[in-house]
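yo

u said u wanted the structure for the complex thing, so here. seqs first:
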Amino acid sequence: MSVAEATAGTQAKQPTELFGKKERKIVKDPLWDNNPITLQVLGICSALAVTTSLKPTLVMCIALTAVLCGSNVIISIMRNFIPNKIRIIVMLSVISSLVILVDQLLKAFSYGMSKELSVFVSLIITNCIVMGRAEAFAMANKPWASFLDGLGNSLGYSIILIMVGFGRELLGSGKLLGFQVIPEALYQMGYVDVGLMITPPGAFILLGFIIWIQRTSSKHFED
Amino acid sequence: MSQAKQGAAYTYMFAMGLCLVCSIGLSLAYTYLKPIQADNVRLDIVQNLLTSVGYTQDQLTKMAPDEVLGVFEKDFQVQILNKDNKEAQRDFMESELLGLGYPQETLTGMDKGSLMNLFNTKVRLLARKAGKKPDDYDPGYKALYIYQPGGKVEAYVIPIMGNGLWDIIKGYIALDLDLNTVKGISFYEHAETPGLGARITEDWFKQNYVGKHILDNGGDLISITIAKGKVVETVPDRLHDHYVDGISGATLTGKGINDFLKSDLSKYEPYFKTLRN
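structre next:
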């Protein structure tokens, strides 16, 4: 949240630059140092649910990126017109419309994937990252900055999801993107896939390790 | 935060405007995408029908959508059977539905299977509206797909459907000419847990069924049951022919499949008896 507050204050005075230092910071910060999943611990539900293998993970990341960037830009354009009393429900309407749209597009152009992700696409609505960024950033910043913030946060989300999906598919089924990676010879020597990785606890364990590594590397400690 | 007026009237207007924009946008998207989505669903169902008679996933992904539908048109004959296992006539279903106010052109455009589904649901719905028990008025029409590539019958496919753990599972089971040996099974609609129950769509699980028998030695229907664990470890030898390996962590999904597979097979069994002789 600190980024949002910092940029919100200085917004009016600074000239708008397309890729100035500040803009780069908006995108780069949530990638690692202020990652929405590992640091703010938002969006955990989908991080557990869709990461059993890498392919649905990638589609989920693309879907979330589309929704988050779209909602941030739309909310930001409307920010001066949204009545303060109903701003949360306004955000919710915008976000859910976008999610339904993404779901319909998936059903039309990537039917197999939409079947595999099933209800988790619609559940993007409840992903706290989307609502969080709308309230914390888009309500106070210009559309371009909000777009970059959406992009940064969804990429930050994607990085963690892909790591978890990579680990779970590799350890859980010995495959990556559906291709067998662990050689047959290893199985004959007695290697067994870790069934636990396919189940939600497996995702928790992996996510725990990632959060540990991430917080150690960016020297973040809870008070 | 805003220069705009924040009175109650403004708030109401804003909310109404937003609702209008969102709903118009979504209805437009829905209307334009619906035909594409319907095609996808239809293609998916036909692909599953083909999987049950032995087409592999690789073969299907290489085929264009038109090709897949072409195979269905050319190699499958659809038979609709009524409760007494006599072939139901298309004309009868059409005229009944016409009486319910369906336009002729809609009905002519439908294939036999969809026509039957519509007929079954409509009759049940009307019975319920009239305060009768829908089950008593279920026309009980059922579809039988006869696979005959090159004019020679090779398999009989029946649709199977019932409750899994979370939602309805739909699929097909194909039987060889003896109407006893399983040629293949496939599932195209389900909402089982990914990584657990959803593994019913994996090849190893479906391959389990191939070559198993639905009749016991006396010729009575015994169906095929999913074992808890590996068949060779948990099931007595004499029953190996009627059991398949289970999925650990998906006991309830398996139980659902066992139940509806048996009940669906038993609906066709009287007719299959006459075919076997």
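The longest strand of chain A covers residues 175-176. Chain A has one domain: 25-217.
cya
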